[in-house]
Task: structure prediction
Amino acid sequence: QVQLAESGGGLVQAGDSLRLSCAASGRTFSSSAMGWFRQAPGKEREFLARITWSGGSTYYADSVKGRFTISRDNAKNTVYLQMNGLKPEDTAVYYCAAKLQLTVAALARLTLATGYDYWGQGTQVTVSS
Result:
């Protein structure tokens, strides 16, 4: 079993920065990946970024490339999402997700919500104009 706990959300103004954290516990993550998604009211869950635990390989959605940075601290089993230049349209609930048993096929599916095994409860980010 895996538990994921997001933190770091809040209310900020446009142009501000936030760093979200996702603390993972339970299973080991030596052969897996973590991802960040967000979901705004009335919209589908949107992929933002993913990172592999072992090699630190990253991939970003075009919508956040250059503004958001995903990173991990293996010793703390924690993944971060640094968000800069926040915009009102970034307002959403932000979720982290974990994929265990990473394979080549699974790697290709990490931009999809269905590509993950475990999810956190989410943290609200609200950006005012």
User: Anything to note?
Assistant: The mean pLDDT is 93. The longest strand covers residues 18-25. The longest helix spans residues 104-108.
